[in-house]
Write a structure and sequence with these properties.
Layout (H helix, E strand, L loop, with lengths): L14 E4 L6 H8 L4 E4 L3 H9 L3 H8 L5 E5 L7 H11 L4 E6 L3 H6 L9 E4 L5 H4 L5 H7 L3 H4 L4 H18 L7 H11 L9 H8 L3 H13 L3 E4 L15 E4 L2 H7 L8 H23 L5 E6 L5 E7 L6 E6 L10 H9 L4 E6 L5 E3 L2 E5 H7 L11
Parallel strand pairs: 1-4, 1-5, 2-3, 3-4, 10-11, 11-13
Antiparallel strand pairs: 6-7, 8-9, 9-10, 12-13
Helix pairs in contact: 3-4, 7-13, 9-13, 10-11, 11-12
Length: 387
């Protein structure tokens, strides 16, 4: 695959750059910081050297004062380096550190706050459709996802199969994050059925045959490894009719499709609907992150099953309600959730993303082909410019 220009804009100051493995963090940094000094902690010899003597970083940076940008790749491998980095920032405020990571778990234990806010936190995500341009394929994205490592492969299906297995082997098992890998593997299969649904730890625990506390711990591990995220419920008024559990998504549709077991009793449209919603979710998450937006992503569902898949709420973007439909035609019942939401929040912009080919305006709801919406979703644009 030729080099894809990413929409991520790096800060001018020091920052953490988090993202799942394979999302192109190192590739981007190599292209953007051509003269930076690298410390690659995935290299066995480098890891041994710095884990044995973290203060060696002090010597390296002080010896290379003419080089003002230092990239520490996979900082979570030796979190003790944060103390040295903190000291170096105090010594010379012109020195810029870029600290990449594919897991925040070790850093949480070590205390990222050691840098006392001196380093910003940014994230790298799977490809957005706007980055791929004419090469973006909705069907391909729904089948194998948009993780650059997989998208660049000549055999993306085979690459995808090994992706989660590698994570389990190298991250979960190697770090001793769980006691029973079999339980965790079974949990991954079960949690895949919860993609786009509200999390119910008790139900998942019952299906896995493990304790609820273990399930909650496993979900936390997925989030720390940047393999999954949750979307909280939107409750800005005293609504007794609204549910409050968060919804669950994997960070990439391909991960969901790899884990979601399918058989003759599964309806393709059910899996396809969850995949489509997941694809929109990961795009919206990336969109807000790359904008460094103060707006947040929410959802809403009432006990009467009036649901809005996504709600964008904050100061820098229009208040927006988005419903995703895996259908080529809009039916009257597809407007149920948005109509319910509009009664309580009439100022919200209303969108339906669907598999059709025409833009429609039904009452106050803008119906947009999902392929068109994703291609036009760019961090430089406000959400109302997609209409």
């Amino acid at each position: 695959m030729h080099t894809i220009k990413r929409v991520f804009i790096p800060p001018a100051s020091s920052y953490f750059l988090f993202g799942p493995r394979g999302t192109g963090k190192s590739t981007f940094l190599q292209q953007h910081y051509k003269t930076a000094r690298w410390v690659n902690l995935l290299d066995a010899e480098t890891f041994r050297s710095f884990s044995a003597r973290p203060e060696r970083l002090l010597e390296l940076v002080r010896e290379n004062r003419g080089n003002e940008i230092f990239i520490i790749d996979e900082i979570q491998e030796v979190p003790e380096l944060l103390k040295a980095i903190h000291l170096l920032m105090e010594e010379n405020k012109k020195t810029t550190f870029v600290l990449t990571g594919s897991s925040s778990r070790k850093l949480k234990r070590a205390g990222v706050d050691l840098l006392a806010g001196r380093a910003l936190v940014r994230s790298m995500h799977p490809f957005m459709a706007c980055e791929l341009g004419d090469t973006f394929s909705l069907n391909t994205a729904l089948e194998t996802g948009l993780i650059p490592l997989i998208a660049a492969s000549e055999i993306p299906g085979e690459k995808l199969k090994s992706y989660v297995a590698v994570y389990i082997q190298e991250e979960v098992k190697h770090e001793g994050l769980v006691r029973n890998i079999g339980d965790f593997a079974r949990f991954l299969e079960i949690i895949a059925f919860s993609t786009g649904a509200e999390l119910n730890s008790s139900n998942i625990a019952r299906e896995c045959g493990i304790g609820r506390k273990a399930v909650e711990s496993y979900i936390s591990i997925l989030e720390d490894l940047l393999l999954a995220f949750t979307v909280p419920a939107f409750v800005k008024k005293a609504e007794r009719s609204a549910l409050s559990h968060p919804k669950f998504y994997f960070s990439d549709t391909g991960i969901f499709r790899s884990l979601r077991l399918a058989g003759p009793l599964d309806r393709p449209e059910e899996i396809g609907g969850a995949a489509l919603e997941s694809l929109v979710a990961q795009h919206l998450k990336a969109y807000l992150a790359y904008r460094n937006s103060d707006s947040r992503l929410y959802f809403r569902r009432t006990y009467a099953d009036a649901e809005v898949d996504f709600i964008i709420y904050g100061k820098d973007l229009p208040f927006t309600a988005i419903e995703v439909k895996n259908t080529s035609r809009i039916r009257p019942e597809d407007l149920k959730g948005l109509r319910s939401f509009a009664k309580m929040y009439p100022s919200a912009l209303q969108l339906i993303l669907y598999r059709g080919k025409e833009r429609l305006l039904i009452e106050k709801t803008h119906c947009i082909p999902v392929d068109t919406f994703l291609r036009n979703l760019h961090p430089s644009k406000s959400i109302d410019q997609m209409i």
